[in-house]
């Protein structure tokens, strides 16, 4: 599809907004919970679709579906909690009432690395708020979006409330995004993707001054201090770095390990990575699938080769396989100037750096233009609070490699974007706040 179909979808969403925005919060709550139950009943089929279009293992795909469904459940409840409030008036005889209303048609641009969850994380709060949506499905993984719509239609969502545009990479995809940004009917854009594309979309949205929320690229530091529980840190690194074959925006990109535990950590991490099974996701025992594209494969290979040329040692992996497979890789003795210092690998490469002082590692961790997520492991309580406050990121994982949940806000700082998804803040991104000032009853 292209611009013409996008205009049609926007107009359909606009027409549906007139009635959908007037429904009660209780009605939207009930319908979203009905959709949640239908999604849960179809976990297996939804997971099979993710394996087929994205390449994840079946176990990981099922994990994504459960994570994806949690956003619909959470925001079904939040639909009834869009509270306004009253404020004591500074003017005699006046009363101030602040109310929240749905912002309008929302354009949602989602990535391929979580084909189901990145849709529900945006659609859930938008529908709960009373907005209608136009979703630009990822070119690489459109089928999860279509399956979601099939189930939404089945449980009774009205025509025009949820619209999906599918398109191939290239001119049509660019035209779809441009139309969503420049069309004055669309009042909100939510985008998850690269910082480069985010800047383009922000420029395109300037002419209509849309409300924006962008979750953009990261370069997450993962720090293991000398007092850390090394076994727990290894488990955290495995979950954080290699989930989705390393193709996640919040995965560890730079792993800093204190010199006192460097050898132990690197040895244990390599041993665990050697146990991974790479292959087709529906085969029992497979833990990791292929990368999503040839460009992604070549980027991982380039990062490995340049790091090795710069002095790094391959502890495990390091080579491409058949098709789009790349071996899960651990590199030790990383040195300054390696490409992962300034660029997301977005693949199954763990590069280990050695450090000696807390001050130095925090300075290095913050010395990038982005700030999405950061992780560190320590058993020192005072250090936990101190380092968490010093890291210039939107989210910090302390003694854990997993951050995202439907119940907490998700988003970054610096060039990793703005706005938050999930938690109590998530639904506010799709609402406008109005102030009504009126004379007191005595004066009316």
Describe this structure in words.
It is built from 14 helices and 18 strands. It is an alpha/beta fold and 444 residues long. Strands 10-11-12-9-8-14-15 form a 7-stranded mixed β-sheet, sandwiched between helices. β4, α6 and β5 form a beta-alpha-beta unit. α4 runs parallel beside α5. The longest helix has 21 residues, at 58-78. It is globular, with a radius of gyration of 23 Å. The model has no long low-confidence stretch (mean pLDDT 96).
Q: What does the secondary structure layout of this molecule look like, with pairings?
A:
Layout: H1 3-20, H2 25-41, H3 43-54, H4 58-78, E1 85-87, E2 94-102, E3 105-109, H5 117-129, E4 132-136, H6 143-155, E5 162-165, H7 171-182, E6 186-192, H8 195-205, E7 211-215, E8 220-224, H9 230-242, E9 252-258, H10 262-273, H11 294-309, E10 313-316, E11 329-332, E12 349-355, H12 358-366, E13 370-371, E14 373-377, H13 381-390, E15 395-398, E16 413-414, E17 417-418, H14 423-428, E18 431-439
Helix pairs in contact: 1-7, 2-4, 2-5, 2-6, 3-4, 4-5, 7-8, 9-10
Protein name: UGA2-succinate semialdehyde dehydrogenase
């Amino acid at each position: 599809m292209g611009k013409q179909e996008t205009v049609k979808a926007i107009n359909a969403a606009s027409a549906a907004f007139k009635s959908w925005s007037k429904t009660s919060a209780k009605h939207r709550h009930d319908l979203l919970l009905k959709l949640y139950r239908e999604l849960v009943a179809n976990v297996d089929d939804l997971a099979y679709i993710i394996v087929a279009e994205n390449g994840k293992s079946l176990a990981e795909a099922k994990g994504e579906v459960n994570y994806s469904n949690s956003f619909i459940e959470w925001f079904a409840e939040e639909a009834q909690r869009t509270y306004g409030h009253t404020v004591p008036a500074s003017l005699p005889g006046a009363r101030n009432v602040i109310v929240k209303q749905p912002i309008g048609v929302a354009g949602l641009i989602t990535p391929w690395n979580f084909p189901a969850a990145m849709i529900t994380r945006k659609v859930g709060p938008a529908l709960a708020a009373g907005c209608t949506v136009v979703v630009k499905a990822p070119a690489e993984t459109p089928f999860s979006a279509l399956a979601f719509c099939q189930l939404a239609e089945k449980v009774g969502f009205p025509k025009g409330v949820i619209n999906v545009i599918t398109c191939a990479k290239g001119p049509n995809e660019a035209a779809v995004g441009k139309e969503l940004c420049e069309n004055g009917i669309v009042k909100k854009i939510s985008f998850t993707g690269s910082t480069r594309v985010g800047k383009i979309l922000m420029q395109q949205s300037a002419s209509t001054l849309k409300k924006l929320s962008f979750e953009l690229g990261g370069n997450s530091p993962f720090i293991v201090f000398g007092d850390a529980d090394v076994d727990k840190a290894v488990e955290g690194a495995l979950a954080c770095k290699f989930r989705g074959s390393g193709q996640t925006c919040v995965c560890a990109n730079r792993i800093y390990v204190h010199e006192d535990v460097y050898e132990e950590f690197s040895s244990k991490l390599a041993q665990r990575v050697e146990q991974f099974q790479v292959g087709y996701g529906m085969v029992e025992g497979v833990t990791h699938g292929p990368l999503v594209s040839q460009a992604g494969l070549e980027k991982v290979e380039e990062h490995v080769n340049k790091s090795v040329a710069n002095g790094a040692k391959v502890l495990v992996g390091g080579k491409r396989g058949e098709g789009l497979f790349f071996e899960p890789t651990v590199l030790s003795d990383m040195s300054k100037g390696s490409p992962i210092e300034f660029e997301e690998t977005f693949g199954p490469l763990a590069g280990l750096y050695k450090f000696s002082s807390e001050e130095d590692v925090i300075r290095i961790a913050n010395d990038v233009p982005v700030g999405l997520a950061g992780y560190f492991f320590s058993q020192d309580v005072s250090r936990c609070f101190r380092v968490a406050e010093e890291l210039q990121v939107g989210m910090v994982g302390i003694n854990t490699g997993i951050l995202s949940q439907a119940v907490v806000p998700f988003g970054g700082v610096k060039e990793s974007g703005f706005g938050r998804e999930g938690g109590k803040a998530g639904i506010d991104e799709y609402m406008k706040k109005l102030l009504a000032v009126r004379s007191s009853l005595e004066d009316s």
